Backbone:
């Protein structure tokens, strides 16, 4: 039996971590992630969280401590944002290549410069090829549900990889919504205690971890890592179905589709902008425009076959990115979708959009203009060579 609470996204993440019963937590505060650490500390003080809470002096230390704890067989959790993620880059990369199933929420925040503390997934997307599974969520309920699922995905013997559950800073981290919270007994049944079997540090049985290796071994490591990443797609789908059987809530696995059955046009989204786009899909449908929505949840591994299948019947599409791919003059997700279609043998008219950088709002008005641009470009059979920027005009500011 679930309970219903009103909570912000950071509280939802901390609640999910508490329900998952991690044995070791190490995290350093950074805006807009800081309340996650505060809530976990509060849970520990109240007695509802029995994890070993480790106070560290930096994000680099946090990930280093969790790497050791995971190697010793512990279930581990942390959270960070932006510059904190950048500071932990070295152990972040090492955690994945050592195949350590650490769960980390990334509260997405724009990277500097210019200085900004506001939301945007540029931080985690920049590290998309560091070997972690990356899942992006839309609202606070999805934060809680997916963070719980993340432990089961990461610890699956077919996967054994660290995982990020990413959500937009401020738009979700500090926004309150209705959230259903499962009972602890339900989560205990869904997520039994972690029993590490692949790498366990034990002083009674000394072993070398990550010694200087030959190129041949590096090749073997990377091949097995990539095979496990590919296997993770199936595990993500399985875990979503198992969680739906427990709670009645399914998030679609790696991809979630909305009104795509008879769509002529499609918009592709990532993260919290999906909500505004879903509302606009309904508005445009009421006006006779057959447009649907493809919500990318799993960015790594990228569900290329599912994306190609979702867009198989449309005449064209657009992608609304809240990030940039320097050198491509588009957003990152746009390039991922285009690559998936190319591999499937299809070439479609498409429009890359960039907006919402540094926490700038992507309003319903901007979404409506984007949808109109998609329809016009697709019907004309054209694809812009660079991104269409979604800006709301402001008095005295040149766009």
Residues:
């Amino acid at each position: 039996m679930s309970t219903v609470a009103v909570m912000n996204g950071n509280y939802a993440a901390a609640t999910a971590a508490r329900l998952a019963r991690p044995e070791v937590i190490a995290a350093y505060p950074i805006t807009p992630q800081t309340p996650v650490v505060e809530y976990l500390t509060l849970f520990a003080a109240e007695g509802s969280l029995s994890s070993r809470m480790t106070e560290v002096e930096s994000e680099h230390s946090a990930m280093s401590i969790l790497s050791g704890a995971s190697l010793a067989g512990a279930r581990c959790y942390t959270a960070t944002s932006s510059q904190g993620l950048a500071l932990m880059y070295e152990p972040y990369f090492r955690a994945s290549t050592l195949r350590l199933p650490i769960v980390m929420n990334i509260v997405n925040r724009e990277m500097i410069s210019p200085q900004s503390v506001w939301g945007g997934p540029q931080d985690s997307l920049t590290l998309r090829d560091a070997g972690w599974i990356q899942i992006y969520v839309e609202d606070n309920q999805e934060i809680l549900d997916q963070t719980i699922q993340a432990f089961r995905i990461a610890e699956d013997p077919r996967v054994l990889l660290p995982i990020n559950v990413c959500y937009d800073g401020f738009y979700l981290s500090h926004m309150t919504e209705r959230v259903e919270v499962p009972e602890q007994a339900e989560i205990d049944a869904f997520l039994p205690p972690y029993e590490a079997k692949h790498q366990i540090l034990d002083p009674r049985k000394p072993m070398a971890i990550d010694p200087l290796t030959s190129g041949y071994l590096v090749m073997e490591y990377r091949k097995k890592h990539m095979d496990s990443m590919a296997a993770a797609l199936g595990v993500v789908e399985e875990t979503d179905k198992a969680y739906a059987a427990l709670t009645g809530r399914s998030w679609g696995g790696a991809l979630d589709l909305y009104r795509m059955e008879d769509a002529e046009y499609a918009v592709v989204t990532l993260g919290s902008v999906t909500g505004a786009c879903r509302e606009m899909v309904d508005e445009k449908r009421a006006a006779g425009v057959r447009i649907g929505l493809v919500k990318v949840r799993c960015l790594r591994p990228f569900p290329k076959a599912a994306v190609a299948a979702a867009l198989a019947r449309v005449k064209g599409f657009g992608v609304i990115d809240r990030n940039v791919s320097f050198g491509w003059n588009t957003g990152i997700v746009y390039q991922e979708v285009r690559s998936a279609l190319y591999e499937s043998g299809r070439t479609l008219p498409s429009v890359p959009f960039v907006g919402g950088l540094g926490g700038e709002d992507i309003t319903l008005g901007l979404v409506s203009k984007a949808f109109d641009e998609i329809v016009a470009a697709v019907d004309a059979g054209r694809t812009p060579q660079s991104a269409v920027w979604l800006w709301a005009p402001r008095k005295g500011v040149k766009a």
About this structure: The chain has two domains: 3-194+215-247, 255-390. The mean pLDDT is 96. The chain is about 40% helix and 20% strand. Residues 214 and 229 are 23 Å apart (CA to CA).
